[in-house]
Amino acid sequence: MIRKLALIVILAAIAGGLAFYLLTSPKTLSPETLAALPDGDAKRGELVFWAGGCASCHAADDAQGDDKLKLGGGHVLASDFGDFVVPNISMDADNGIGGWSREDFANAMQRGVAPDGSHLYPSFPYASYARMAPQDVSDLWAFMQTLPAVDNDPGPHRLGFPFSVRRGVGLWKLLYAGDDGPVVDLGADDAVLARGQYLVEGLGHCGECHTPRDFAGGLKKGSWLAGAPNPDGRGRIPNITPGGTIADWSESDIAYYLESGFTPDFNSVGGSMADVQENMAKLPASDRDAIAAYLKAIPAHQGQ
Fold it and tell me: pTM, whole model, 2 decimals?
């Protein structure tokens, strides 16, 4: 009897391990999708770069001017799961992504899979970047190749068990990274709103900071953009729905804030939003107008 029970336990463990292996297997873009990636344009890619906020995380802390184009990583993102160390994504072949192909880049951006087949941690917002248009992915890749190589090894993430097991990220993806459709049903066929939705929900990944998360770090999409605790413990990321901080702002107020950094009350942008605002200022005015229109059209959540 004991031998039978032991055998059952062993078989159950094997079956459980096999199920875990299959469920957590990294899933890349299909060969057909990769083959259909269009040629990229670096000039267009520069706008994608700023809209996507690449420099805000991957440039050195307090970088200014052209130093924002040196993407050697090293910034630390504190979280309840440990410290995520932002990687080098410069064209350095040893410490950066200089040895990647465009297909490698697309899989990282939209599926969170590294060239070696391992999962990337969702501190890199690929769940939002999954909504990027293939043309923008190719354009961004073309621009990235024009940027300088930075010889810097930021080191590994500082995560405790079980979060240090990358394979487990596959379970997180099953819960939170499988849907690349729109977060909000705007119910209108409006080109301006559609552009704003694309920038906020996808390329600009605004929800990654402004939306609260559950115990596993997934976005609570029912409270989309309703504000969230600041991951580094200082203050709170504001509610940017029509019921929150911007309730009394007009669309032109929002657009001007993104361009200038000044609120309607002439307060200036601060904290991590300062980097975001500087990025938004580099976009065409039509994009800032589209973001403003979207933010005033989404469902309101009350409170700050």
Answer: 0.91
